[in-house]
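ok so dumb question maybe but i'm new to this and my supervisor (M.) told me to 'just get the structure for Acyltransferase' and walked off. so i did the thing. is this what she meant?? sequence i used:
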Amino acid sequence: MRGTPKNISLPRRLICDLMHASMGVPFVSLSRPLQIRPLLEARAGAMAPAGWAATFVKAFAIVAGDEPILRTVYAKWPWPALYELPKSVALVAIARVEDGEECVLPQRIAAPEAMPLGEVDAQIRHAKAAPIEDVPMFRKIMRATRLPLPLRRLSWAVGLNFGRQRGNWFGSFSVTSVAAYGGGELHAITPGPFIVSYGVVEPDQTIHVVIRWDHRVTDAAPIARVLTRLEQVLNTEIAAELRMARQAVEPKPIRAVRT
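this is what came out, is it supposed to look like this??
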């Protein structure tokens, strides 16, 4: 059957490089529905609540502040070792349409646990809407993707295998989801070490969360504990920040002054 050959676009080439870099990573996954009623109540009272991606980015980073293993990566050079990053660095999968083609590009957010939730959300929204050249991470990754194949392989190898460079290029965890398109249990693939994905909010006020991780870094028991802690953070710290943001914009009542 005769078809039509098509060139591989830069965004699609990026995914090819990403899949090549992810080969050989021994991923394991754990999924669980999280009960988030307090968070949903706080979101319902907010005028413009942050998106779910920003919510999970900050919540996971807060958990990682108390769990150093969530800031640990596996690095091969100069010899195989685990490397603990001083802070969390998130990579958020941004769905875009470039030149009529649907694609996904990674937005880097450093130390989201120290940012207001609205700022994390603003960075994600900017990455969705701004031209590629206006997003530093996109410019950086597209510049590398334009390189010839041998140089691309070398640049990815350096970024992946030196612990110090992992935070600069690939972060300490990734967040992705297809909830905007109807949800589903997504088991994404990246070079690791941690990938968080979430579904849609269910009628019973739960949301299904999947964590995939590099088994060389940690085991299932710590991740089970992380999911429990993640549920707590969503319903406490994140919900409280949403309520505080609402109170900050609500007009204060004016007392009547008797004369």
